[in-house]
Amino acid sequence: MKLVITNEYVGIRLDKVLATILTDKTRNNILKLIEDGYVLVNGKTIKASQKACLNDEIEINEPEAKPLELEAENLNLNIVYEDSDVAVINKPKGMVVHPGAGVNSGTLVNGLLYEMDDLSEINGVIRPGIVHRIDKDTTGLLMIAKNDKASLSLTEQLKKHECHRIYHALVYGEIKEDKGRINAPIARSKEDRKKMAVDKDGKEAITNFKVLKRFKGFTYIECKLETGRTHQIRVHMEYIGHPLVGDRVYGRKRKIISDQGQFLHAKKIGFIHPTTNEWMEFDSELPDYFKDFMNQLEVID
Questions:
Q1: What is the pLDDT of residues 170-181, one digit of tens each?
Q2: What's the CATH code, domain 65-160?
Q3: Which end of the chain is less enclosed by CB atoms within 10 A, N or C?
Q4: pLDDT by residue (tens digit) across 6-24?
Q5: HEC secondary structure over 94-157
Q6: Number of H helices and number of E strands within the chain?
Q7: Active site residue 117
Q8: Is it the case that residue 144 has pLDDT exceeding 80?
Q9: Binning pLDDT at 50, 70 and 90, where does residue 141 land?
């Protein structure tokens, strides 16, 4: 990738400039690229603290990915449904969906490799079968593609918003409205590259919610996604002043009253079967920790 410095970036540290432009990378990713000599300015390696000058030519090279050998692991996955094309998994809390930085075992992918002989490889060696994700501490249903045809079909359905993805969540505060629609674009946070945030220059993000039950100081809601941005529900609920209970990233200004992580469960999922064209829909129970916590709360509605 090549860039040319314009007036708006003159005099700013180059690592900060790149962190602003390269929204798919964290500040640490960028610092590592600079440190390892993969960022050149006017053909020369640089220091992160170097200031940008007008018309500087920046070249960013990516290191070659090292092959990753994934091990199949018996993780006792909860397979809700499986045929020759697709599977539906009920993911437990604390499980990462696929390997990433520093995480090569114990992921959903490791478990899938043990349970299934065939998985789509269209999304790369570390994401076999994966067409969408949920966070490590979010529980619930995920679609899995067992071949490339299924992967392309499910991905297209997600892109066209034809899949139904319904989540249940517990948030801080008593939401007055019975239902609502949050239409607020999301991008990587300019203040903290590990977080996402509502940003007018971000990608379209739409979450519909309705109140299921009100408690003293809390609200139990259902959320239906029209888009699938990273951390979408967590970001949107914080945005309207009702962050998820237990969310240590987006709800950290609130008292953490549980060590279970955010109270968010992918409860229902629906999609068109890639081969039969049949509409398929699956539901799942709330995890015990979620139900047990709500049973301790005082109902007000």
A1: 999 999 999 999
A2: 3.30.2350.10
A3: N
A4: 988 899 998 888 888 876 6
A5: CCCCCCECCECCCCHHHHHHHHCCCCCCCCCCCCCCECCCCCCCCEEEEEEECCHHHHHHHHHH
A6: 6, 15
A7: no
A8: yes
A9: very high
Cα–Cα distances (Å) from 298 to 6, 213, 214, 219, in that order, read 57, 11, 9, 11
Other CB atoms within 10 A of residue 14 CB: 23
The domain locations on the chain are 2-60, 65-160, 161-301
Q: How far is CA 77 from CA 17, 95, 288, in A?
A: 43, 11, 17
The chain-wide mean pLDDT, for the chain, equals: 90
pLDDT reading at 257 higher than 70: no
Write out the CATH class of domain 161-301: alpha beta
Domain at 2-60: CATH architecture:
Roll (3.10)
Task: State how far the Cα of 136 lies from the Cα of 130, in Å rounded to an integer.
Answer: 14
Torsion of CA 269, 81, 131, 247, to 10 degrees: 60
Same fold, 65-160 and 161-301: yes
